[in-house]
Amino acid sequence: STKKIKKGEKFSKSNIFVRRPGGGDYKIKDLNYLYGRIAKHDIKNNIQIKKKFVKWEKLFLQQERELTTVK
Asked: Which of 3, 11, 33, 38 might form a disulfide with 55, Cβ 3.0–4.6 angstroms?
């Protein structure tokens, strides 16, 4: 995190950034998927984002349905 993130706040370009070395739960390729997700907990400044900090369920399932829908 590049600044403090409150529980319920969305992840965005203004509050998360990829830092090297990338040995955490998320890689550079995952960054765009994190934007718009919701923080489950308060996250302090300069803390690596972990899977347990991210609320995926509803938004992820919605996107999955959109990807599998034939247009």
From this structure: 38
